[in-house]
Write a structure and sequence with these properties.
The complex is a heterodimer of chains A (138) and B (393).
Chain A lengths: L15 H5 L6 E6 L5 E2 L14 E6 L2 E10 L11 E8 L6 E5 L13 E9 L2 E8 L5
Antiparallel strand pairs in A: 1-2, 1-3, 4-5, 4-7, 5-6, 7-8
Chain B lengths: L8 E8 L10 H15 L9 E4 L12 H7 L6 E4 L8 H11 L5 E9 L36 H16 L3 H15 L13 H6 L2 E3 L2 E2 L8 E10 L11 E7 L19 H9 L11 E4 L4 H11 L7 H5 L18 H5 L5 H12 L11 E8 L2 E9 L3
Parallel strand pairs in B: 2-3, 2-4, 9-10
Antiparallel strand pairs in B: 1-7, 1-8, 4-7, 5-6, 8-11, 10-11
Helix pairs in contact in B: 5-8, 7-8
The chains are: A mainly beta (138), B alpha/beta (393).
């Protein structure tokens, strides 16, 4: 178990992979094997071409903060305010929007347009995708 | 245009139960009180009521009473009953009643929305109040937000408000005009929860909830029931207090039905809802005398103002700033009974009730020569609207 807040992950059969994907350090998003479009949240069929050839596929795990909120209320016990909830749009397809927490920086550093990368927090059997500012290399 | 069939319906009665922060009464108790008052207001008896419609009804979150409970409590004899959450927001219950009347399935439909969020299910962590999924668990769309502590609609609406501020320069002072306007109007509403005067400085000084939303951007949970009677328009001449016409319903859900995957983070489904309403009428936004627009969170009202077309996209902040345009003597008097921020979270039905009062000329803060009212309720992917007129449309 992690020292993080209670994650209350309740996966569906379609999303089970999403919450386990980080076990090998990779984020995966459902993708259509016929038309190539990314699908999120994962579903039973490609919503664009109705193909059943859909499967999880690794993504780079990088994206951009589309918007965010700083919570000052403990909406769920264990989530100690202040904490950032954000929507991150993935580089592969900005219409794939992921709800997440932004960590690894000061709260007042978070801004719309910020470039972020995924990391995972273990929570029981799940690997919960979180995002942090992209670490600038030398 | 062929006559939209919703015009076969009128609102013949409207009433509310007692409303309070915490009444410690059951939902059905409050519902019966509102229903009997509304039926009487319509000049009818329970024997005339042949339809019941409510939101959310059985199994719905934050519901106050089921349609079947009212059915049983008043021993109604019904030709039609309907409830559910998969509607165009809470006003979907009104849409359904209108459609039932227009098709002749029912003649007088009692429609209600009851909330017992004040004493029955206060906003507390984990209960999922405010439209949230709570922590009780859902493998549905909320599964992608609950694990991140985003358990309330406050968190999701805040994300839209933030992006709107980023893209259009909307300020907290502008957003605050919605709350200040509501509080000023609530002072004239004897059923309002909060009536103490509020200034924009009070607003700016109060604690944050989910930035950029502060406490006064979030509505106040309460206990209460609102009921209206939807009747066939051929009953209109017999309505004692004056029939209110249904000119157009707004029901469209053309975008993705999602809080987090909607295509535009500066608007919500009301963009499509309002568009579909205007497609069904010869009237235009310029004909609207007052607007009763949902303020479960203040930013939702800005989204409704833009969706209805009272100003252009992204211009709602400037439109409401200072409160002149939306005040009782302004271009578009807004939420004239105080809205949900101050009068209590009646989930859109307080706005509906006020629209009826305005069109009858019995509102506490009356708009002169009021003939057309736009009502919009809901946020995120669950939004619906009504264009109502003085007398049958």
């Amino acid at each position: 178990m992690s020292d993080g807040p209670p994650r209350f992950v309740l996966a569906s059969p379609e999303s089970d992979f999403y919450w386990r994907s980080g076990a090998d350090g990779r984020l995966r998003i459902q993708r259509c094997g016929d038309c190539g479009r990314w699908i999120h949240p994962p579903g039973p069929v490609c919503p664009f071409c109705h193909s059943r050839r859909i499967s999880p596929e690794p993504v780079a795990g990088t994206g951009t903060v589309a918007t965010y909120t700083v919570n000052h209320k403990e909406w769920i016990p264990g989530f100690t305010p202040p904490y950032v909830f954000a929507f991150v749009e993935l580089d592969e397809d900005p219409t794939v929007r992921i709800g997440t927490n932004i960590v690894g920086c000061e709260i007042d550093e978070v801004e719309i347009g910020m470039r972020v990368e995924v990391l995972f927090e273990e929570s029981g059997e799940w690997h919960v995708p979180l995002f942090r500012p992209i670490q600038e290399g030398p | 245009m062929p006559e939209p069939l919703e015009r076969r319906a009128v609102i013949s009665g409207a009433a509310q139960s007692d409303i309070g922060r915490r009444l410690y009464r059951t939902g059905i108790d409050l519902t019966v009180e509102a229903a009997l008052r509304a039926i009487d207001d319509a000049g009818l008896t329970t024997a005339d009521i042949d339809g019941v419609s409510t939101y959310p009804g059985f199994g719905g979150s934050f519901g106050g009473a089921m349609g079947a409970e009212l059915h049983e409590a008043l021993r109604l004899s019904l030709n039609w009953r309907s409830s559910g959450v998969e509607t165009a927001g809470p006003l979907g219950a009104v849409h359904n009643a209108i459609l039932a009347v227009a098709t002749g399935v029912a003649r007088h439909v009692l429609v209600f929305r009851t909330v017992v969020e004040g004493s029955g299910g206060p906003l507390r962590p984990g209960t999922g109040g405010g439209g949230g999924g709570g922590t009780s668990g859902s493998a549905g769309p909320f599964q992608f937000m609950i694990p991140y502590g985003a358990a309330s609609a406050a968190c999701w609406v805040a994300c839209y408000a933030r992006r709107h501020m980023h893209d259009y320069g909307t300020t907290r002072t502008q957003l605050g005009a919605i709350a200040v306007n509501g509080r000023a109007n609530a002072a004239a509403n004897p059923k309002a929860i909060y009536t103490d005067p509020m200034t924009i400085d009070d607003y700016l000084a109060v604690r944050m909830v989910s930035e950029p939303l502060c406490l006064y951007d979030c509505d106040v949970p309460c206990d209460g029931s609102t009921a209206v009677v939807v009747s066939h328009r051929d009953y209109a001449p017999d309505v004692p207090a004056g029939a209110v016409g249904v000119n157009a319903i707004g029901t469209a859900i053309r975008g993705r039905p999602s809080w987090d995957q909607f295509d535009d983070l500066t608007s919500m489904m009301m963009r499509h809802t309002a568009a579909s309403m205007w497609e069904r009428t010869e009237l235009s936004v310029d004909d609207v005398d007052t607007a009763q627009l949902y303020d479960g969170f203040s930013w939702l009202t800005l989204a409704w103002i833009e969706a209805m077309g009272f100003c252009g996209k992204g211009e709602s902040g400037a439109f409401v700033e200072g409160g002149i345009n939306i005040g009782p003597d302004g271009a578009v008097p807004l939420n004239t009974s105080g809205g949900q921020l101050s009068a209590g979270r009646l989930h859109g039905f307080g706005h509906l009730h006020e629209a009826v009062m305005q069109l009858r000329g019995t509102a506490n803060i009356g708009v002169d020569d009021c003939e057309v009212v736009a009502v919009g309720a809901g946020g995120g992917p669950e939004t619906g609207s009504l264009l109502l007129t003085k007398g049958p449309s």
